[in-house]
Write a sequence for this structure.
């Protein structure tokens, strides 16, 4: 019987890490805000996660994180988003 109990315990879903992150957009926005060290602008990242494809945002964040000379990572990220939006309109 104990082995059956252990088997059912393993099938349970893991608890959510943060109950406030209830969608893929929220998770990505939280990840971006944390990695870019800009938690004050979570709303900005959430809006971008809802309007721009996630792989594009991850690629742009990677470009920011690869540059060691950046003082304000959030500002550079916003600039790259602006540049991406201008290019995508053409």
């Amino acid at each position: 019987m104990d082995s059956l109990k252990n088997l059912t315990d393993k099938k349970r879903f893991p608890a959510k890490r943060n109950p406030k992150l209830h969608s893929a957009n929220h998770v990505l926005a939280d990840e971006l805000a944390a990695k870019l060290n800009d938690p004050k602008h979570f709303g900005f990242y959430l809006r971008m996660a809802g309007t721009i494809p996630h792989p594009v945002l991850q690629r742009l964040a990677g470009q920011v994180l690869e540059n060691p000379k950046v003082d304000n990572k959030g500002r550079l990220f916003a600039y790259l988003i602006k540049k991406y939006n201008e290019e995508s309109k053409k």
User: Anything to note?
Assistant: The radius of gyration is 18 Å.
